[in-house]
Design goal:
This protein is an alpha+beta fold. It has helices spanning 2-15, 19-61, 63-73, 96-109, 175-184; strands at residues 83-90, 126-131, 135-141, 147-156, 164-174. A hairpin with a 7-residue loop joins strand 4 (147-156) and strand 5 (164-174).
Length: 186
């Protein structure tokens, strides 16, 4: 008899739980899940912010890290390093070709790569690679047959115009690496 009484009490206790208590228990459980998601979201956001600040600080302070990052985003196809041009080589021109030709003339006259010069017998010889609205990559032929000049150009905003072109970096490539880039259309 004792077991029957326990069973009756248990049945009455369980059936005495109303829908309102069940719904309240579910709401508490949902609030806990939302709170936990918020905590993890805040932790992730803090981690990302700290990571970006650290990378930005190291990028600004370390030339080696900056070169590593540049070589990651702009793959190195040769042992010659990519030379960044501070604030870009500007001509005040809206023409990509005018800016390119002005830079190539400066490249030759200032001997920016030692003895390597860009071929300019009947005008400059160059191939336009990957391009979009605001950036373009160019490979120019050099007077030494085994060397090519890789040039990165960007268009910067200027008042209410289409923007001014500038050369932001250059790199000497060997003929093989240059031909590979040309074949891949990069």
């Amino acid at each position: 008899m004792r077991n029957e009484e326990k069973a009756v009490r248990l049945f009455n206790g369980v059936t005495g739980v109303g829908d309102d208590l069940i719904e309240e228990a579910r709401m508490v459980q949902r609030r806990k899940k939302v709170a936990m998601r918020r905590r993890w979201g805040m932790i992730a956001a803090c981690f990302i912010a700290i990571t970006l600040i650290t990378i930005g600080t190291v990028f600004a302070a370390s030339e080696d890290f900056r070169q590593l990052a540049i070589s990651f985003f702009f793959p190195v196809y040769t042992e010659n390093e990519l030379h960044e041009i501070d604030e870009g080589h500007r001509t005040g021109s809206f023409s990509m070709e005018d800016t390119l030709f002005t830079f190539l003339e400066k490249f030759n006259t200032e001997h920016m790569a030692g003895e390597i010069t860009v071929k300019n017998e009947n005008g400059f010889e160059y191939v336009v690679l990957a391009q979009n609205e605001n950036s373009i990559n160019v490979i120019a032929s050099c007077t030494t047959p085994d060397d090519k000049l890789f040039i990165i150009m960007e268009r910067t905003n200027y008042k209410e115009t289409t923007g001014l072109w500038q050369v932001t970096a250059y790199q000497i490539l060997d003929r093989e690496a240059a031909n590979e880039l040309i074949d891949n259309g990069q």
